[in-house]
Amino acid sequence: MAGPIIWDEKHKVSTNRVEVDPITRLEGHGKIEIFLDKDGNAEKAYWQIPELRGFERFCVGRRVTELNQITARLCGVCPGAHHLASTKAIDGCYNTKPTETAFLIRDLFYDAHFVHSHIAHFYALAAPDFVLGPGSPAANRNVLGVVGAVGLELGGAVLKARAQAQKIQAMIGGKATHPCMGVPGGVSMGLNKEQQKEIISYAENLVEFGKTSMQVFNDVVLANKDYLGIIANPDLYYQETYSMGMVSDRKGKNQMEFHDGPVRVVDQKGKEVYKYNPDDYLDYIAEAVEPWSYEKFPYLRKIGYKGIVDGPDSGLYRATPLSRVNACDSISTPIAQSELERFRGTFKDLGVEGPVHFNLATHWARIIEMIFAAERCLENAQDKDLCNSDIKQKDISPGGRGVGCVEAPRGTLTHDYVCDENGIVTACNLVVGTTNNNGPINFDVCKVAKALIKNYEVSPGLLNMVEMAFRAYDPCNSCATHSLPGQMPLTAVIRDVDGNIYDTVTRN
Fold this sequence. Notes:
This protein has 508 residues and is of the alpha+beta class. It has 15 helices and 19 strands. The chain starts with 10 loop residues before the first strand and ends with a strand.
């Protein structure tokens, strides 16, 4: 395959403000504003989320058992993650835990969700930048352009694997997109032997597809010196933050985990600084607010919020596939563990000791996670207890607080509910995957803009490379907008009958 087109033709801009609006290849809405200094060099850049959805507020007053249906509709990309985190919070409000079989079924569902989500991001959202090149024509940087470049056979394999992962979710969750399986202490429906056999066949293919995806990444990205030069350039997509990820000791200490376990935070050198129970997240996590965004800025409470800066004195942290790779000691499945060792060995050869802080390496970590989820999907599907009938706890009642935490594909996801003895929600807090990464995303966007935009010169390819800074995080902005810094800004433009502007009224 030919090398990528990195740079395209530049042109001069006549103002000190450059906008990318709307930004592309993400879930939700957003824009990037870049401000140039007197010499035309990028001085500041902001990743802005101009929407507010307010799910936290209108969850209050609803029955707590409705919330795993309501919050699953935050968006169509992460319904599985929200449904499972919400169901775990509901378990807590009922002071119960799922039966062993119910836990296994939930785990199997979530494995499939991870594979389904990571396929979508890598092939539809990220791959155009690598397969076609950051500076290729914008009309080509999409999934159709990717299929045209890699061939129909791989395109068909992508669609088949995603459909199979979706089928597993539908069989277990009750619906393909908005699952309805979760009930306090269990799941609403079990599985039979025929379903188990079908799921096993799907999972076997997902494992093979994971290996295929890693080979695609090897051939298209790792074998291309231009791309490696971009990925491993400390002046571009690089920042030193804390890394957060859920871990489990089920098969070994501090192994990668998506569904259930403590949350581990390591510092810039890989040293563990926190390992906390999700119930106690407020002792470790706080959220700052900036007046220019409807998205909050989480940080490590004990270190503090110092603004959009990196380093050990800044409480900013990342919660991404890359941070989960940094936060774990190992992975419990053989193929994913082998790929983790190769990942770490490759960067060690480049002089990296400890955690990897190159943001674009997140795409590599995402494929490792895809393989892990597929392998675990197969393990769970083959479990002899999968079809047991004990799928729900009995004699339970609501009243109290529940915290549900999972690793969403795009970051650590926490649902925190309080309900009364009638099961009515009195308080609700959501810290979603994308929100965790809001500060680091802003840092990366600004750093890349400063590195690339000089002398009033921009190009579509350069601006796309600025977008690549956020795209590695796979942000879901619909989920992430919870801050209300003031009144919704409003601009009313009054025109005469000929369309000429008569007056403009602005309210901030």
